[in-house]
Amino acid sequence: MIRRHELSDAEWELVQPLLPQPALGRPRLDDRTVLNGIVWKFRTGVAWRDVPDRYGSWASLHTRFRRWAADGTFERMLQAAQAQADAAGDIEWLVSVDSTVVRAHQHASGARKGGSAARPSAGPAAG
């Protein structure tokens, strides 16, 4: 069953070949389960400790996330997703950047000099 915050089969097929091969040794948690836990964490915005147990230990998820971030796995995933979207014509690469900053001077706001527009009178003028 595919849950709301998990990878679809098509998404998994795209990223699976990009994951590092596990080293020989003791068995570890399935990569798809770990990746679904990482995706769930970032899509929901919860703390690592609040990731559901169905994804495995939060510490294992965090360790794998840090390892994959350090070795460029997520960068390769992004590049593959961009290449696929670009081939399908789903990315518009034209970017417009405007660094103009317009600041109004404090006197340009229309306020009268020295405070409010109407000053209270001190009483009748002596005279």
Automatic annotation (TrEMBL):
Residues 105-127 are annotated as: Disordered. Residues 7-77 form the Insertion element IS402-like domain. Residues 108-127 have a biased composition (Low complexity). It comes from the Bacteria. InterPro entries: IS402-like_dom, Transposase_6_like. Pfam families: DUF4096 (PF13340). This is Insertion element IS402-like domain-containing protein. It comes from Streptomyces lavendulae subsp. lavendulae.
